[in-house]
């Protein structure tokens, strides 16, 4: 390409710039401009039509001290991490195992039917999923309780939804039910890219199927696993609002509240905007640090970096 | 594995295949049974359901549970709002994501790198709920129908997926059209957009499902106006009323029941409502399955 001046380039690309400009402005308004709201975390913001934003009381790090000084927020962090780690582990184990087993199916059509059915829950709203789960786990007429009783595995009905010890696991396994099939897609795609001659060589050496999975398939999808692991460790605090909120009830409130729920309750219900903003800000900053850290680890391990 | 013909299959291998098939059948059962059971409860007489023991078929078949839902004007309005937000969001999001992707797919574009980073960063950095709420308040979006549409005019992930697809198309298409004097908009609408149909279908389905399924925005940004409520949000209200024993269900449903022989329990109502809310997706899914999945292959992990 010949070298031209900047103005020439701009003139040449004015149409593209003209199309891109609204996207630049739109993204600024909806994603970057709200970041100034983080300043609220350093104020004692009072909703009022008289006091202007800059004239609100500035309190420095007071809100963060309140957050970490009390008992509630540390418990909320514990819950978020607990659910996040359980979700992460169950997610990986279930998806990888299921992908390997799907890969061992030799009938194409059967495999496709299984896949189609296992992807379905991914497309249902959280509300429907929680409603289905509660229908199954219900104390009064839930099928699981009745099946457990009939099989003699329990003596009396289990109050699944009311026991704090079960809560994180119910969230974890409901997530597995919803996303396991969908999560295999990426692994199955990665398995198809493994060089088939490796399997032929293993056959000649007399490797059995377990060995082929252990020494060819798993190492073959290692980089996919690592990339997804990084992505998901970065999101570990994002267990979100929806599922814990919908499953929550009075019995399990202590273990159910996540950072996102805390933000909604402090901010939207109690109108303590500053405290809620501080909590949300804490979450975003920790997530970014986690993503950066995992990205760095991946680089050190010689894997492709995410960003 | 296909290579199994090469080796004689051992007894253990044969046993594994049988076990694996049985396992897959079990998985399919686990995936489908919750729907079936909820369907059974929804078609069963509400007072009878309390007795429990409903597994595979309703004992006393009735459509009362559905009659309550379909005779309800509030739920009809909510259905309309759900459809409207889904259609508008899908049209705008797909069109604008594709347009942005087109600009970013042009390798000679001078702001290409900058805009890509600028967009990708928004996937990781979010200001959080409270600043977002204040922004929407300033934009007069609170308790306004457009709060369902305006915040998602394009999606960063969708842009990446569409751009990846566009990059697989030959550059010469756009170049030759340019030599013929076509402007960028013409190239985009007449040449690129029709070629991208498969990936656009995938993205459209993702966006439509996401919009249809969301309730958080109603919950936070439009809770004050009943005529802006969506089907999912009404479902959410019924769900929370059925969870807590003896709590109040949404007024309009208890009002309707008073003095009628159509007694329903929150639990049966929830079952019927679950079926109604899930139905559009269950109907569309088998036909669209191919499109739902293919975009993930196109887009791969990166991004």
Offer a few descriptive terms.
heterodimer; A: 307 residues; MetI-like fold; two-stranded antiparallel ribbon; B: 303 residues; mainly alpha; 69% helix; globular
Rg result of chain A: 25 Å
Beginning-to-end CA distance, first to last residue of chain A: 29 Å
Residue fraction in strands of chain A: under 5%
E-strand count of chain A? 2
Q: Which helices and strands, and how do they pair?
A:
The complex is a heterodimer of chains A (307) and B (303).
Chain A: H1 6-12, H2 14-32, E1 43-44, E2 57-58, H3 62-69, H4 72-104, H5 108-119, H6 126-137, H7 143-150, H8 164-192, H9 196-204, H10 209-220, H11 222-234, H12 242-247, H13 253-256, H14 259-269, H15 273-300
Antiparallel strand pairs in A: 1-2
Helix pairs in contact in A: 3-15, 4-8, 5-8, 11-15, 14-15
Chain B: H1 11-42, H2 46-49, H3 64-70, H4 73-105, H5 112-124, H6 129-138, H7 156-167, H8 172-179, H9 184-195, H10 197-213, H11 216-221, H12 231-243, H13 251-257, H14 266-299
What does this protein structure show overall?
The complex is a heterodimer of chains A (307) and B (303). Chain A has 15 helices and 2 strands. Chain A is 69% helix and 1% strand. In chain A, strands 1-2 form a two-stranded antiparallel ribbon. Chain A has a domain of 198 residues: MetI-like fold (Orthogonal Bundle). By secondary structure, chain A is mostly helical. In chain A, helix 4 packs across helix 8 and helix 5 crosses helix 8. Chain B has 303 residues and is an all-alpha fold. Helix content of chain B is 69%, strand content 0%. Chain B is built from 14 helices and no strands. In chain B, helix 7 packs parallel to helix 14. At the A-B interface, helix 2, helix 4, helix 5, helix 6 and helix 8 of A face helix 1, helix 4, helix 5, helix 6 and helix 10 of B.
């Amino acid at each position: 390409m010949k070298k031209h001046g900047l103005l020439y380039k701009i003139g040449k690309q004015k149409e593209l710039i003209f199309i891109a400009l609204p996207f630049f402005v739109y993204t600024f308004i909806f994603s970057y401009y709200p970041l100034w709201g983080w300043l609220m975390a350093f104020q004692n913001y009072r909703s009022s039509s008289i006091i202007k934003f800059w004239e609100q009381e500035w309190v420095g790090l007071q809100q963060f001290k309140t957050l970490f000084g009390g008992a509630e927020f540390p418990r909320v962090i514990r819950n978020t991490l607990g659910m996040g780690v359980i979700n992460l582990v169950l997610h990986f184990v279930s998806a990888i195992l299921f992908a390997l087993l799907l890969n061992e199916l030799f009938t194409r059509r059967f495999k496709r039917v299984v896949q189609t059915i296992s992807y379905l829950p991914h497309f249902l709203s959280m509300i429907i999923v929680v409603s289905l789960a509660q229908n199954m786990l219900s104390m009064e007429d839930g099928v699981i309780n009745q099946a457990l009783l009939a099989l003699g595995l329990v003596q009396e009905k289990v109050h699944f939804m009311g026991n704090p010890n079960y809560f994180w696991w119910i969230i974890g396994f409901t997530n597995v039910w919803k996303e396991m099939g969908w999560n295999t897609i990426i692994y199955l795609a990665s398995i198809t890219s493994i060089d088939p001659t490796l399997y032929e060589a293993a056959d000649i050496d007399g490797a059995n199927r377990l060995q082929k999975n252990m020494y060819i398939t798993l190492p073959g999808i290692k980089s996919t696993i690592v990339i997804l692991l990084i992505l998901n460790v970065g999101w570990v605090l994002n267990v979100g609002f929806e599922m814990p909120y919908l499953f929550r009830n009075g019995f399990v409130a202590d273990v159910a509240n996540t950072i996102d729920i805390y933000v909604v309750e402090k901010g939207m219900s109690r109108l303590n905007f500053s405290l809620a903003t501080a909590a949300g800000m804490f979450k975003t900053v920790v997530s970014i640090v986690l993503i950066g850290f995992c990205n760095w680890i991946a680089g050190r391990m010689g894997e492709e970096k995410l960003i | 594995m296909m290579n199994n013909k090469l080796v004689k299959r051992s007894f253990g291998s044969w046993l594994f295949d049988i076990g694996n098939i049985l396992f897959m059948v079990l998985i399919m059962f686990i995936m489908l049974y919750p729907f079936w059971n909820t369907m059974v409860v929804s078609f069963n007489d509400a007072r009878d359901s309390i007795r429990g023991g409903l597994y595979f078929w309703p004992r006393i078949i009735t459509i009362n549970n559905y009659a309550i839902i379909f005779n309800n004007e509030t739920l009809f309005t909510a259905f309309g709002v759900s459809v409207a937000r889904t259609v508008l969001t899908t049209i705008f999001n797909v069109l604008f994501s594709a347009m942005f992707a087109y600009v970013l797919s042009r390798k000679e574009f001078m702001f290409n790198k900058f805009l890509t980073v600028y967009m990708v960063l928004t996937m990781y950095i979010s200001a959080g709920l409270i600043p977002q709420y204040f922004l929407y308040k300033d934009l007069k979006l609170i308790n306004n129908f457009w709060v369902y549409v305006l915040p998602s005019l394009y999606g960063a992930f969708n842009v990446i997926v569409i751009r990846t697809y566009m990059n697989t198309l030959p550059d010469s298409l756009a170049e030759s059209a340019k030599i013929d004097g076509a402007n960028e908009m013409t190239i985009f609408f007449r040449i690129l957009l029709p070629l991208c149909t498969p990936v656009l279908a995938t993205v459209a389905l993702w966006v439509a499902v996401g919009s249809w399924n969301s309730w958080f925005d109603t919950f936070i940004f439009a809770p004050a106006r009943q005529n802006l409520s969506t089907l999912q949000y009404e479902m959410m209200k019924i769900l929370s009323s059925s969870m807590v024993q003896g709590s109040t269900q949404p007024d309009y449903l208890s009002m309707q029941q008073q003095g009628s022989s159509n007694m329903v329990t929150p639990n049966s109502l929830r079952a019927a409502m679950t079926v109604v809310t899930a139905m559009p997706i269950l109907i569309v899914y088998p036909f669209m399955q191919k499109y739902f999945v293919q975009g993930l292959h196109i887009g791969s992990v990166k991004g």
